């Protein structure tokens, strides 16, 4: 004897996940690639070649173009201040952003110090220390990534800030005490570069021996 429509409806209602207390899992929201944080990161990357071109106009000795180069560098450095904050605050973190943001930072700082050294405005040993530290930290990160994550510390952020300030000052076509102040800032930046690099090595060693493959120790 076939079931009546009313009985079928009752059976369907009883088997419903919502009626039985079962709730379907919520899918994680998909973060669009073209969000404000990633746009700022891509803008910073796009500004790097423009900054280099402006820096080397007329052999790097045209005051107007040096000011333009300093302005482009400043704009790019400011985007670095906001893209990460926006990504974390509004849930806009993407794999692209995680990869592109540090690349943009290193490209900007690296091109600036190399450019200043080529022009004779910055000693090459300073450039080698700064670039060597960044390459070393990147290699360490690749080595320990399967055993854990090394969290970003305040020292690294302070290092980047002082580096950016000193570079901006040295880019401007000014001399006298202003140039001296820029060099003092650069020496402070070099000291922070070395100290934070050594701290990173220490953290990498601790993560390597404390964490097994796949274990993360922080973000």
Write up what this structure looks like:
With 219 residues, this protein is mostly helical. The chain has a single domain (31-210), classed as CDP-alcohol phosphotransferase transmembrane (TM) domain (Four Helix Bundle (Hemerythrin (Met), subunit A), Up-down Bundle). It is built from seven helices and no strands. The protein has helices spanning 5-15, 36-55, 63-89, 95-118, 124-144, 154-171, 176-210. It is globular, with a radius of gyration of 26 Å.
Helix/strand/pairing category: mainly alpha
Order of helices and strands: HHHHHHH
What sort of overall outline do the alpha carbons produce when their principal axes are compared?
globular
Q: What's the CATH topology label?
A: Four Helix Bundle (Hemerythrin (Met), subunit A)
The CATH superfamily name is CDP-alcohol phosphotransferase transmembrane (TM) domain
Provide the CATH architecture. Answer: Up-down Bundle
Membrane topology: Multi-pass membrane protein
Subcellular location: Membrane
Family: Belongs to the CDP-alcohol phosphatidyltransferase class-I family.
Transmembrane segments: 36-57, 64-82, 122-140, 161-179
Q: What is the compact description of this entry?
A:
The protein has about 220 residues and is mostly helical. It has helices at about 5-15, 35-55, 65-90, 95-120, 125-145, 155-170, 175-210. It has a single domain, classed as Four Helix Bundle (Hemerythrin (Met), subunit A).
